[in-house]
Amino acid sequence: GALVYQYPRRTICKSGTSMRMECQAVGFQATSVAWYRQSPQKTFELIALSTVNSAIKYEQNFTQEKFPISHPNLSFSSMTVLNAYLEDRGLYLCGARDWGGQNTLYFGAGTRLSVL
Amino acid sequence: QQKVQQSPESLTVSEGAMASLNCTFSDGTSNNFRWYRQHSAKGLEVLVSIFSDGEKEEGRFTAHLNRANLHVSLHIREPQPSDSAVYLCAVSLLPGTGSNRLTFGKGTKFSLIP
Questions:
Q1: Which of A69-73, A97-101, B15-19 bottoms out in mean pLDDT, i.e. has the lowest?
Q2: In A8, A34, A64, A86, which residue has its Cα 20 to 30 A from B55's Cα atom?
Q3: In A, residues 45-104, which contact B (CB 8 Å cutoff)?
């Protein structure tokens, strides 16, 4: 079956430091990867959509300078939160889309970021 | 910009009763609708995907879509304690017809009275 693994599950970083999170697709080809954030008391916001062989599209309020994303192949993506501050707290979800199947978006369990 | 609203904010039903969750969306060109479940700040589990008017059943979960009314609902048959979670409605356009962006509602917190 199709699975998406995210690492780490939880992380704590000091204010102003950076942390990198990873997303691994297993059992399918992730031609498109979407990174979402669920901030406390809010729903999921799309940060950016990355499609292999295309430029990464960032949503309003999110920039490459703050959330650089790498999508080097069809099974892996990573995103870094640079200079993390309190407002960056939340659950970061990676959703990988399998174009070859039913175009389902499979989500990982998320990386929970706490900022001290 | 797409707006997705879910109701009620929270729902409690007795074991064995049918549970109904509602979702309205603002973009009438949307054609890709999903219901997800989130257990206690974990990741998302996809329950049902529906793309055309009518209903789609996946086990005890049935989605009803009425695009003319900008409405999609989820019905949970014979809910069980393990179904207690936050249910999220997500709406987007299928690829080739525009953005692949999923817009989420704020969720309905569902719980069961044993």
A1: A97-101
A2: A34
A3: 46, 49, 59, 91, 93, 95, 97, 99, 102-104
